[in-house]
Amino acid sequence: MAPTVPSVKLNNGKEMPLVGFGLWKVNNDTCADQVYNAIKTGYRLFDGACDYGNEVESGQGVKRAIDEGLVKREDLFIVSKLWNSFHDKERVKPILKKQLADWGLEYFDLYIIHFPISLKYIDPSVRYPPGFFDENDKLSPGKASLEDTYHAMEECYEEGLMKSFGISNYVGALLLDVERYAKHLPQTLQIEHHPYLVQQDLVDLAKSRGIAVTAYSSFGPSSFLELKMQKAHDTPLLLEHETIKSIADKHSKTPAQVLLRWSTQRDIAVIPKSNNPERLAQNLDVCSFDLSKEDIETISGMDKDLRFNSPPNYGIDVPIYA
Ligand SMILES: NC(=O)c1ccc[n+]([C@@H]2O[C@H](COP(=O)([O-])OP(=O)(O)OC[C@H]3O[C@@H](n4cnc5c(N)ncnc54)[C@H](OP(=O)(O)O)[C@@H]3O)[C@@H](O)[C@H]2O)c1
């Protein structure tokens, strides 16, 4: 039987599952099957994005599960994200509608501003997903302010194209600025969050405003090994760290489950990605045991303010966290 996954109540009354499946780096040829199998395993939240380049296949997996009667659309919580090249206010709704069509959906449960960076528009017929560079493989800034993009998101929200909307990779100053111009505060903030990058002040700030936090890259360096990022190779793996392993042994759980529980127990949602069926099942079962207060403090005490998912770490000269 699939483990029970609690929900977090968002500031607009909607409920978001605390555990979901992340779709970044899920290959196109296996994606539909992985989504379908994840639904079979009990996952209900899927965290996608234009940039992941697999929205069509993700939608195929969802459709198969719905067609076979495994779930209904309303049982699922589908997340997608607005890419940097579509921040101009007149570009937001058309690209959102294209993404919905790719998934085969009428609405997203959550649609997120992926990064607080505006890049030059690239027509989807030229290159999709666009990535960070323009048609001439140059990094070209866009003209949209974050406020303009935000208001365009609010319009789509009011129209019902997404049931909730969020921001991602925002720092405290940007979040405080949102408060100045928002008609509706965002429902969620998605950030890199693991024991090497705790960002407690940012988590506290979001929570104090009623904004739910979602952690990405919960295993720290592991995700970035796949990308051959030097910084990840130079960092001791959290999944093999003695501190995490000993806490895991104490609870008869795996290190991955401890890392995920460290977040969920603090009401921070997680969206791990796994290509492996056994790990897929394991990652969903991260709310059925409790860490002690000391375990949580010990894990939080591993903080090194060490960030992996920053554009300069990929050789992209956009130092948003400078
Ligand atoms: N908003 C943003 O800017 C942003 C940025 C990054 C990520 N995200 C979202 O967050 C999701 C998760 O983050 P992520 O993809 O960076 O990485 P992650 O889920 O932290 O880590 C994935 C890596 O951990 C391995 N893994 C997964 N479960 C495991 C387990 N139980 N035991 C051991 N190893 C395990 C995976 O390998 P296997 O596949 O082989 O199991 C993979 O190498 C993404 O898919 C995406 O949806 C958002």
Automatic annotation (TrEMBL):
Query: What sort of enzyme, by top EC class, is this?
Result: oxidoreductase
What SUPFAM superfamilies is this protein classified in? NAD(P)-linked oxidoreductase
GO process annotations (BP): D-xylose catabolic process
What metabolic or biological pathway is this protein involved in? Answer: Carbohydrate metabolism; D-xylose degradation
User: Do you know which PANTHER family this protein is assigned to?
Assistant: ALDO/KETO REDUCTASE
Q: What is this protein called?
A: D-xylose reductase
Sample GO molecular function, one term: D-xylose reductase (NADPH) activity
Catalytic site: Y52
Site described as Lowers pKa of active site Tyr, positions?
A: K81
Family of the protein in this entry: Belongs to the aldo/keto reductase family.
* Annotated EC: 1.1.1.307
All residue ranges annotated as the NADP-dependent oxidoreductase domain in the record: 20-302
Q: Where does substrate bind?
A: H114
Species classification: Eukaryota, Fungi, Dikarya, Ascomycota, Pezizomycotina
Keyword set includes Membrane: no
Q: Which Pfam families match?
A: Aldo_ket_red
The protein's organism comes out as Extremus antarcticus
The protein's UniProt keywords, in alphabetical order, are: Carbohydrate metabolism, NAD, Oxidoreductase, Xylose metabolism
Q: Which domain of life is it from?
A: Eukaryota
